[in-house]
Write the structure tokens for this entry.
Amino acid sequence: MLDTTALNQQRNFFDGHSSLWLFGYGSLIWKADFDYLERRSAYIHGWERRFWQGSHDHRGTPEAPGRVATLIRAQGAVCHGMAYRITPDVLAPLDTREKNGYLREKVPLTFVDGNVGDNGDAAEQSEGLIYLASDDNPAFLGEAPLADIAQQIAYAHGPSGANAEYLLNLATALRELGAEDAHIFALEHQLKLL
Ligand code: SIN
């Protein structure tokens, strides 16, 4: 099975830092089973969330993969999520958790609760780390009609549980953040029709 762990250990964008910001946009929003120093609602520019990544190890199996979130580039888009300030030792277990095609990438992130300066545009920003499953990874499934994606999610199960739970938890978490996400809420609606 695909395993990006070794590759990620070479991707040391925050070498020498005693802590770094991890930006979660999928399960990392609602399943923070790792230690963190603080967490803040945040967003990234130029990316949209999509259920286009296959899950063979968490929410599906090699025979019947589930679908989980990744990001695609989209000019002008904003993707809301949760930023966690972590110590570097937390990355090793995260690399294992995200090993099915996700690679560490460095992105600028903006905190939702950042102070806005007198000129109105000084929202607080930082460099952050994301786990990104790009379209050239072997577990990438890509676009499909929403109804088909919802159907696949409805029936997939894996070692971490039902794929439907992942989608519903993500939709609930985004609502709690006050985040707009047409793709996720449309998929949630489709799933509930089944
Ligand atoms: C993330 O949540 O930021 C990465 C994808 C996932 O684990 O769902």
About this structure: Residues 24-28, 68-69, 98, 131 surround succinic acid (CB under 6 Å). The chain is about 25% helix and 35% strand. Helices lie at 5-9, 27-30, 91-97, 146-155, 163-177, 182-193. The mean pLDDT is 95.
